[in-house]
Design brief:
Strand order of the largest sheet: 5-13-10-4-9-7-8
Helix content: 40-55%
Largest sheet: 7 strands, mixed
Structural class: alpha/beta
Low-confidence stretches: 554-559
Radius of gyration: 27 Å
Distance between the termini: 84 Å
Number of strands: 15
Length: 559
Amino acid sequence: MQSVVNRFASVIGGRTISRTSLILLVALWISLLPNLATHKMFYAASETAGLGAHLGFMLGGWLTLFALLVLGLSLLGLPFIRGSIRYLLAIALVSAAALGYFSLFFGTLFDKTMLINLLQTHAAESFELLNLRLIGWVLLLGVLPAIWVLRVQVRAETSWLKGLWRPTLAVTVLVAVASLAVFSQYSRYASAGRNRAITFHTVAPLNIIGAAVAHVHVQRTANIVREARGMDARQMYALEKPRLVIMLVGETTRAQNWGLNGYERDTTPRLRALDVVNFPDVSSCGTSTAISLPCMFSGLTREEFSLTKAAGRETLIDVISRSGARIFWRDNDGGCKGVCDRIENEDLNNSDDPAYCSAKGECVDEILLKGLEAKIRESTKDTFVVLHLKGSHGPAYYKRYPKSFERFTPVCTTSDLSSCSRDEIRNAYDNTVLYADHMAAETIQMLGRLSDQFATAMMYASDHGESLGESGLYLHGMPYAMAPKEQTQIPMIAWLSKQFLQLEQWDAACLLNRAKLPRSHDNLYSTLLGLMEIETKEYQRSLDMFEDCDLRDRGAPRK
C-alpha cells in the first residue's frame, strides 16, 4: 500500500510516469469534469426504476465515455513519440474544458454543422462569448491540468513491443468492461439512443475531432465547378413598371416570439398595422446560418440538401441574374456563405458609421437601408435585392437593437446567458424581435416611396430559430433530428403592394388563405421565381406558395 501511495505522490510531484498511465489519467480527468454535460445526458436518459439500476445505467455510460477517450487519445497519440505526447494531451485538456463548458451551460452539441458555424463566426461575435465564468472554468479544468501534464516526465519504454502492448491491453480491457456494462442493460441504452437522448456530440474533445473530419470531407468535395442552373431563365412578361422584390433574410428569430403568430407580447406592432401576409407554420432547412442560408437559395428541399450538393450547383441568385434582372446583396451578418459570390454584394458588418455602429464595429440592421433607396432608383429593369440581417443573433441579444427599442425590461446584458434569469433573456430577445419588426416595416415604407418607379413586393424569413433556456438549451445549432421546435420553427411574411397585385392580377384573399398552410424554406426558391415572373425549368409550381392566386390563368401551369 505504501508503495502505491509513494508512486502516486511521485506522479503528482511531476517526476516520471509511463505513456500509458499518462493517457489513462488524462482520459479519466476529461471523462469526469469537462464532460459533465455527457453525464447529465446519461442521467436524464435513464428510465430505470430504483437507485441501484439508475446508478448502473450512469456507470455504464461513464465507462463507455472513458473507454472512448482512452481509445481516441491513444490513436491520436501514435505519431507523437516519447514525451511529445504531453503536448497532445495538454491541448486535449484545454479544448475539452472549453467544449464541455458550452455543452453543459448552453446545451451545445458539436457536430460538423456547429464546427462550420464556429469557423464562420466573425471575431466580434466570438468575443461576446467570453465571460469570467468561462475563463475560470477553462483555467481550472483545462489550463492547470495541462500545465501539470507538461511538467511530467514520460518514462521511455524499454522496447517498441512493450510500448505497444500496454496501451492496447488498457484499451481492450476498458472496452470489454464498458461493453459488459452496456449489454447488461442493452434495451435501455438502445431506447435512449433511438430517442436521441444520448449523443456523441457532447463527448469533448472527441466531438470536435469527429466534426473536423466530417468538415474536411465536405470541403474536399466542395471544390468543384458549380453546375449551371437556369440556362433557360427569362422574364416571362413585362409589367407597366419593372418589378422590385426585396428579400429580408432574418437571423435567429423564432416563430414562438413572433407577435403575428399569436405570441402574448405584441413584438410586431408595426407589421400588424400593415397589409402583410403572415405564415404561422413555417419550418427551417437547418438550425444554423451555415446550413439554412445556402439551403434557402439552393433549389433543394431539406431532405435533398447537403453542403456537398449545394456546392456543386448554382443558386437562385444565379438564376434570377441570368434572367436579365438586376440583383444585389447587402449583408450585416458575417457573409452570405458563398451564395452571393457571383453578384454585386456589400458586407456592412464592420462599418464605422456612428449612426448605426458602435466603436467596435457592431452595427444594427438599419445600416442595410442607408443609401439603399437611391441605389435602387438607379435601376431601370426588374430588380431583386437581398438584405441579410443580424436580427436576433445571440448570445448578446442586447447588442442587436438601439437602446430606444428596449421596451421589455430588465434585460440580460451579458453573453453568459446562464447567469441571467429566464425573464431577462426573454426580454432582451423580444426586443430584438421588436427591432426586426421595425426593420421590415421600414423596408415596406421605402418600397411605398419607390412605387412611382416600380411594382414592389417584399418577403421576410428567418434562417432558423433559437433556444432560450427551454429544457436547459440555449442558442442554436442542434442536429436537426434532435433540435427542439424553438430552433426549427421560424416567422415568415410577405408584403405585396396593391399596385403589384393589380398589375399581376393576383387575388389578395387567396394569398391570405394559402398562407395558413404548413410551409418551409423549401417553398422560397419557386415562390421568389414566381414573384419575379421568371420562366425556367427550375421553377416548381407545387412549391410556389402563391401560384394558384393568379386570376389570369388560375390552375394553368405557366412557368
